[in-house]
Amino acid sequence: MNKSRVFSGMRPTGALHLGHLAGALTNWVDLQEKYECFYSIVDWHALMSNYADPGETRQNCIDILLDWLSTGLDPEKSCLFIQSHVPQHAELSLALAMIAPLGWLYRNPTYKEQIQNLQNKDLSTYAFLGYPVLMAADILVYKADKVPVGEDQSAHMELSREIARRFNHFFGENLLPEPQTLLTPTPKVPGTDGRKMSKSYGNSLYISEDPKSLWDKIRTMITDPAREKRTDPGDPNKCPVWDIHKVFNKDPEQAKEIDKGCRTAGIGCIDCKKMLNAHISAMMEPIRQRRVRYEKDPALLTDILAEGAKRAKVVAQNTMEELYPAMGLLPLAP
Q1: What are 117-156's pLDDT values in tens digits?
Q2: Given 3.30.830.10, 3.40.50.800, 3.40.50.620, 3.30.1330.200, which CATH number is that of 5-189+297-326?
Q3: Single pTM value for the model
Q4: Rounded CA gap, 80 and 107, in Å?
């Protein structure tokens, strides 16, 4: 194929929510029309932090695949697969670990942040320290040209490029092309309590939720605390419901009316929530229909993952066959 190649992945740590939809999946669906896309459910990465309690990982993989398919990822256009089903990810990760300096890994800002924030888990492991090496392998094994990420992932991408450069320095120029960051908009999608939408906070609106459950959550969302009574004016910029409107409400005239109505107490918070719910319901209807279709055919899901792994292995194995002699290793005979 002459198209540029894209790689991205998600950890199977739970159901995906509207933050994932706005921040990644909508963009992934667009990218599959322009690029050769490899999208991986990165279960090795999930195991790094959940090794003590991996029981839900298998079902999470299926749930994420359903979320991907329901939001419009097409297995005819994108290669959808599970990371551990393509052993070359682990193989290249080991090769890159040979040349990745420990100092680079200890200075990784995300490593320090997660060690502090996830103190309920023992993350003092070789794999957790080295997860940027596996992340680099995920990308480099496909010689991906571009990786769609938000600005908060830019440091990881730079580390992947540094690892590629160091590998090339030791074993051969341009063996591993440096992947470029494809910066994508990451709109603010707050949860029901105003904090960042996150499964760990229990404040998420999930892609797989039924309409009643979503409305129950939207109806009880916090709003501008200044609006204690219906007649109190408010400030939309202090309201998480308004932040979600800005992402999913595609009617600019209505958005202006909501902004004005909030500031003048011309509308109540429940009116604003009803309008938000209407937009989310309209957006989610085709997603729900696709999900129902795929849920009825578990064998099809298995086939999609098997075919995706088969396609991914061809590309990944070609890369490894090129790297083995460059590293001075004797390739295994066919």
Answers
A1: 777 788 889 999 999 999 999 999 999 999 998 877 888 8
A2: 3.40.50.620
A3: 0.94
A4: 32
